[in-house]
Design a protein that fits this description.
The protein is of the alpha/beta class. It has nine helices and eight strands. The strands form two sheets. Strands 2-6-1-7-8 form a five-stranded parallel beta sheet, sandwiched between helices. The protein has a three-stranded antiparallel beta sheet with strand order 3-4-5. The two termini are 22 Å apart.
Amino acid sequence: MLAVAVDGPAGAGKSSLARAAAHSLGCLYIDTGALYRAVALYALRQSADPCSAAAVEPLLAGIALALRHNGGTQQVFLGDEDVSEEIRRPEVSAAASKVAAHPCVRTFLLGLQRRLASEQDVIMDGRDIGTVVLPDAQVKIFLTASPEERARRRMLELQEKGTSVSFEQVLAEIHNRDYQDTYRAAAPLRQADDAILLDTSALTFEEALAQLLHLIRQGGQP
């Protein structure tokens, strides 16, 4: 099976680029961040503090979490409920970074992620795919962009969805998310030693996608 690991910070374009690359190559796209968002949503619904591992861990046994794909689009389900849109709300995004710091949550999701990669060709994106989840992936890419560019893209995305937010607020959230992801004890965000760096700061979506596809087709070689 072909396994492509795409890691990088929040707002770097991992999801949209990995999804488009998977479609082009006929692979299954797996957005692991959506899994953490779903856990965060469940914790918030149970009025549990996402910062507290002691509060979150007892809930894990009751989470019926599944990924389904419909026409190439990934859908996230909690039980029978499609929560694909709800997990994108800003408060869920903030909580996702907090629950992702807990080793119990990462262990809970690790088996699911590896099972999916063992069943078919996948392009999987996240924070620790190349370092922890799929350390033997044939292709590893660390996809990033400057904090300012990531904030600009995120602000436009939120505005398109009707959410009014300032650039300064989004930039502060980006910096905070980067700090949390980089300095957490469990599987911190870092570039794998054998990953290729792809900086999309000055690239259009089409240019970034072309470079990503080139790296995958070259087996992760520049």
